[in-house]
Amino acid sequence: MKLATLRTGATTTAARLDGEVYTEIEGFPDLGSLLGQENWQQLAAGAAGPKHQAGTVALATVVPAPSKVLCVGLNYKSHIQEMGRDLPTHPTMFAKFADTLTGPNDAVEAVAEDPELDWEGELVVVIGKTAYKVSEEQAGDYIAGYSVANDISMRGWQFRTKEWLQGKIWAASTPVGPVMVTPDEFDPAAATLRTTVNGEVMQEHSVGDLLFTPTHLVSYLSTILPLRPGDIILTGTPGGVGRARNPQVYLQAGDVVEVTIDGIGTLNTPIVEPVKQPARQPVAGAARQL
Question: Does this UniProt record's set of keywords contain Hydrolase (predicted)?
Answer without folding.
Answer: yes
